[in-house]
Every structure is written in structure tokens, then in C-alpha cells.
Amino acid sequence: MSILEIVRFAIRGLFINRLRTALTMLGIMIGVASVIILLAVGNGSSKAIQSSLDRLGTNSLQVNSGARGFGGRRGGASATIRKPLTILDATALMDPIQAPDIKQVAPIANVNAACVIGTNTITPSTFVGTWPSYFEASNTQVLKGSYFTNDDVTQGRNVAVIGNTVATTLFGTDNPVGQTIRCGGIPFTIIGTTEVKGSTGFLDGDSLVVIPLTSAENSITGYQPLSSILVEAKSPTATTPAQTEITNILDARHGIKGNASADFSIFNQASLLTTSATSSQTFTTLLGAVAAISLLVGGIGITNIMLVTVVERTREIGIRKAIGAPKGAILSQFLIEATILSLFGGAFGVLLGILGSHFTISGTKPILVPASIFIAFGVSALIGVFFGGYPASRAASLRPIEALRHE
Amino acid sequence: MLQLAVAVVAAEAVDSVVDTQPVIEVQHAIKQYGVGEASIFALDDVSLTIAAGEYVAIMGPSGSGKSTLMNILGALDIMTSGKYFLDGIEISSMDENHLSIVRGRKIGFIFQSFNLIPRTSALANVELPMAYQGVKGAERRERAMVALEVVGLGDRVHHEPTELSGGQQQRVAVARALATRPALLLADEPTGALDTKSTNDLLDLFDQINAAGRTVIVITHEHDVAQRAKRIIRMRDGKIVSDELNKERVA
Ligand SMILES: Nc1ncnc2c1ncn2[C@@H]1O[C@H](COP(=O)(O)OP(=O)(O)O)[C@@H](O)[C@H]1O
Ligand SMILES: [Mg+2]
User: How far apart are CA B162 and CA B120, in angstroms?
Assistant: First the structure.
């Protein structure tokens, strides 16, 4: 009895019950496809977080007023008198001796104003008055036109660099460079547009207007404390010592001693990156677990179907044994049936998984994890052998007379 | 043509049987079902010898142990105690794996309920035992076709069991039993589900098969069927009560 012969028996067995065969394969197929797709979604979302954080610049630290907020350092001892952040704080951070790990500093005044041209209007989600160092520290590159200069800041010129969302909202496809818009009622000449940044979470990185700090203070916000100070460390690994240097300098300037709680907080991009990397890893693991469960359910489906098949075909097994089928032939036949079910189900599942990974799923572009294809397919093949093995060996061990008596 | 085919199938069978030895030798067979008070002896010390080329009918009322005997002769079941030699080989001490080989090579079964594989053509059904023996495709097909010709179903080889009458299904079963050229043809109530015409056709076929030299054992409770055999064994309560030649058939 050749194995090819037994394979033919197995295929015939599967063909006789087409609907059942198809449904069982569907179970495995969904299991395999969901492993591939869900892992691709997890992978895609962690890659997306990674790349948007890369765009933001991982060298940068943001110093905010107030102790609360992300990255705040000390625990709550007695409150001290709150001192606002000032330009002097910003310039103090530029001291190369006290702050050797800091490359540059950009004081930021947030502006709350709408920008208008003709009937088009937009309230940028990020509208700041700052120094030219802002562009490098925030990893913002100009695509058309140019950055504003230190001279623009000293002279308090009303010039603006705008992001892509602002440009398209106000000008459509026209070139905005050289045009004049009104922000908070004040005319600003656009001297540059920035490269597309994409969005980070809920924040549209391209809904951006950057103007000189002095012109913001002169014409819109008035003279107020800084909203924040953007600090660029010399390298990604320098962010931690830079954070210490900022703390020391500002503690001294704001008169904070010992365990007193600070009146500023430091937001560290790099530590955010690690946090989100871990959380997206957890997310991927969770998705993987869900997918693994659905693969397991598919496997139980195979066992179930094979058990039913064996019971239903007990008499046939008896006949086969009566006319000389050895135990091995019966065992192989049912084992091969189960393996074919899971192999083909698995193969279709791989196809479906690869296909499904081409679609954007709830805002995430899935990125295939090649290993997941092999693992899902391999596991589904093993499932056939393991889960089909039990019913198959039950079928093969039946004494012919018992099987023949079965009605 | 038909006679020729039967002769071909039978001649090969005779070659394979060592005629000096009995085909079947059963010594003190006991088959006990259950234990203690409720236990019954389906076979109660049965000894039996059947020589090559015999045509034997085993008769007896329902529950007398005929099927139990047939299952043991056919190596489908094992006895509680006793010895059984088939074609010179001791069967009673074999494990299931060897038994399956013996069943395939030495025995052809015919059951009351035909026991064809459902949704499978007559040809494939007849080929099946040869497939399990490892007979190659072309030879298998040819032998199956010859066997189906012998039973008069040469024109129905691609029909599935549900597309055949009871008599035709039973003839497929006979073809399946013959195709492996067994030492022994075992039939348990083969006419139980057939009408008179099909019964006679089948018994004619058994006559031919036996005339060509093959050993045939038919289990039946019908007098007419038993009368076609050359030797009649009667059973009651698991015992052989009589064993005689059929005077009508043996001169
Ligand atoms: N699997 C079994 N379990 C218990 N008793 C059985 C079984 N098979 C047969 N018997 C009993 O053995 C006796 C002989 O049965 P059987 O050989 O089928 O008789 P027959 O074929 O002559 O009608 C009966 O009394 C029957 O009830
Ligand atoms: Mg019976």
C-alpha cells in the first residue's frame, strides 16, 4: 500500500463531504489570517509611533512652566513661589560650561490666534513665537523659501514660516511664499513652508505657524512669560545629562533647594519613545495572543470534525479492516485528511493574511512580520497532526468486528 | 467468456492452496461473552476441519453462534480459548496487524448487508482490498474488471452502491471477495436481504466459484440455501449438533 494511495483515499474522503471540509478549512484559515494580520497591525502601529517620534526629533527636551505634567521630577514637598520661565532662563541654559550637553535653546511663546487670507481661515494647532534655533531643535525643515533669521528676531519683523496644512487651507495649491496673511489681525509675510511632518496621535504636525518671538510679543501676545523652552541636546544619549543640567540651572535661578517641588517640568522625548515602544510591544503581544487563540479554536474545530468523521465512518473503517486494511493505513488516511485540512486552510489563511495586510486597519497601515507567516503556517500544519492524531488513532485502533457492528 | 473468466480466477486460486492441508482447522474454540452469572458461551467447544475445495453450509437457529463462528473463521474476532489454523498458519496467536494481512490475503467476505464502501464506485470497491495489498494500479484494475465480469456486472463498474440493486450490490461484494484470490470465501447470511431471483443468481455464482476449486463457507438459516452446499453443519447453543454431507449434492 503506497502512501500516494492513502493520500488519494484521504482526498476522496474530504471531497465526499465538501461543505464540512470547506467550513473546517475556513476555521483554520481565519486563525492563520488573523495571526498574520493582527501581528502586522501591531508591527505597523509600533513602526508608525517610532517614525513619528523620529520626525519630532529625539534629541529634544521641553521645559514647561509648572511642576505637574509628564516628566515632572520631585514628589510634592512644600510648594514654593512659582517663578515663570523667562528669556533669561533660556539664555542661561545656553551656558556651555554649566550645560555642556545642550546644543541649542529656543524660547517659545504660544500664540492663540487665527490666520486669515480672503475668506480662508485657520487656527493653527501649533502657533509659536520663537528663535530660529526652534527649527533645528524641533526637527522642522523648510521645503520652500527660507527660515527666519536672528536679524528678523532682533528687528521684530512680521514674517512667518507655515506648515503644509496651513498652506493648503489658506492657499490651496498656490505657492504661499511671498504672500501676506493676517494672524490675530496683524499682517505677516510668509517666507517659507515646512516639509510634511505627518501627525502624531491627535496632533497635526503640519498645522503649524512659526514667527519670531519678538514680533509675537510686539503685535499679538504682548509681553508675557514664556510658554516653554525647547532644548536640543547634543545627541540622543545626551538628553539625560542635559535634563540634569537644565534642572540644576533652573533650580538655582528659581531658588529651589533640597526637596522643594520645582516650578517647572521637563518633557523628555526619548523617555516618551521608550514608553510608547513598550506599550506598542504590549499591544502587539496582546494582538498575538488573540490571534493564537483563534488559531487554537480552528484546531479544536479540526479535532471536532475528525471525531465526528470517525464516528460517522466507523462502519466504513470496519469494512476496510475486514478486507485487509492494516492499522497504519487507516491511521495515515485520517491523519492525512486532518493534515490536508490544516495545510490548505493554512495556505489560504496566509493568502488572506497577506491580502488583508494591504488595507489600512483603524488608521494603522499593517506591516507584515515575515516570521508570523511561517509560524502561523507551521503551527496550523502541526495542529493538523496533533489535533487530527487523536481521532485518527481512535479510528485505527477499532477492532474490525466492533466497527462492523456500529450502525 | 464468463466461464473462461471464472476458470482463470479459480485456477490461480488452486495454485495458491496446498491441497494436502485443510484450509480450516479449529480446535476446541470457546467464545464467551460477559462474565459471571450473565456470561454466555456463543461458542462452546467447537472443533471443525474444512478441506480445500469444500462447499460448506453452517445452519442453525438465530443466536446459535453462527455469526460468532464466522467472525472467528474470518479473523475479525478473537476467541476466548482454543486454536485456529487457517491454510496451515496459526491465527489464534496473531496480533491485529498480522490479522489484517491474513484477512486481506486469505479470506474473502460476503456479508448480509453487503458492506460496500458508500459513495464509491463498484470498480473502486473491488480494487480496494488489492490496494491495501499493494497490487499496482494497472494490474489491480484489470483483475477488478475480470472479477466484475465474472459476477455479471461488467457494464456497471462505475455505478455507486446506491445506484445498484441489492442483488447487484451483493455481486459487487462477491467480486471484491474474489479479486484477491482468497483461500476461503466466507458468506454470512448472503441472501438474507435478497429476493428469490437474486438469491438464485448468487447461489449459481457460488456453485461456479466452488466448481472452479475454491473453498466456500455459507452461513444461513434458510433450508434452500443450505441445500446448495455439499456439506451441512448444524449448530445449536454454540455447539455443533450435526455435520454431514449433503446427499442431494454429493454422489
Ligand atoms: N457482542 C456481543 N456481546 C454479547 N453477546 C453477544 C455478542 N455477539 C453475540 N452475542 C451472543 O452470542 C450468541 C450467538 O450469537 P450469534 O453468533 O450472532 O448468533 P447467530 O448468528 O447464530 O444468530 C447470542 O446469544 C448472542 O446474543
Ligand atoms: Mg448471525
Answer: 9
Cell numbers given for B18: 496446498
Are A248 and A150 in a shared domain?
Answer: yes
Q: A18 and A96 share a domain? A: no
| Residue A182 neighbours by CB under 8 Å, 6+ apart | A115, A116, A117, A188
* Domain ranges, ordered by start, for chain B: 2-18+53-77+94-250
Q: Is the Cβ pair B180, A401 closer than 8 Å?
A: no
pLDDT above 60 for B10: no
Per-residue pLDDT for B11 more than 70? no
H-only helix segments in A61-101: 87-92
Q: In the listed set A222, A254, A286, which residue is the last one of a domain according to the structure?
A: A254
- Given this model, what pLDDT does residue A53 score? 67
ipTM: 0.89
**Residue A69 falls within a domain, yes or no?**
no
Note whether A400 contacts B76, CB cutoff 8 Å. Answer: yes
Pick from B116, B119, B132: which is nearest to A324 by CB? B132
Which cell numbers hold the place of A341?
485540512
Closest CA to B100 of A324, A404, A319: A324
Q: How many domains is chain A built from? A: 2
Between strands A102-110 and A228-233, the pairing is: antiparallel
Does residue A392 register a pLDDT over 90?
no
Tens of pLDDT, residue by residue over B140-163, are: 999 999 999 989 999 999 999 999
**Do B131 and A327 make contact, defined as CB atoms within 8 angstroms?**
no
Q: What is the DSSP letter of B125?
A: H
User: Nearest residue on chain A to B77, judged by CA atoms?
Assistant: A401
What span, in angstroms and rounded, lies between the C-alpha atoms of A104 and A59? 11
- What mean pLDDT, rounded, does chain A reach? 86
Give the distance from residue A303's alpha carbon to the nearest chain B alpha carbon, in angstroms: 23
Range of the domain at A165: 84-254
Q: How many CB pairs under 8 A join A and B?
A: 66
From the list A2, A12, A322, the residue facing B76 with the nearest CB is A322
Determine the length of chain A: 407
Percent of chain A's residues with pLDDT above 90: 41
pTM of the model: 0.68
Pick the closest to residue A370 from A13, A87, A130, A35 (CA basis).
Answer: A35
> Nearest Cβ partner of A323 from B96, B119, B176?
B176
pLDDT tens readout for residues A114-148: 999 999 999 999 999 999 999 988 888 899 999 99
pLDDT tier at A394, thresholds 50, 70, 90: confident
Domain boundary among the residues A254, A286, A316 is at A254
C-alpha A170/C-alpha A115 separation (Å) is 8
From the CB of B208, is ligand 1 less than 6 Å away?
no
The verdict on residue A397 lying in a domain is yes
For residue A259, being part of any structural domain is answered with: no
Q: Report the CATH number of the B2-18+53-77+94-250 domain.
A: 3.40.50.300
- Do A327 and A369 share a domain, yes or no? yes
Order across the sheet with B81-86: list the strands.
B40-51, B22-33, B81-86, B89-90
Residue A78 in domain:
no
Residue B3 has pLDDT above 80, yes or no: no
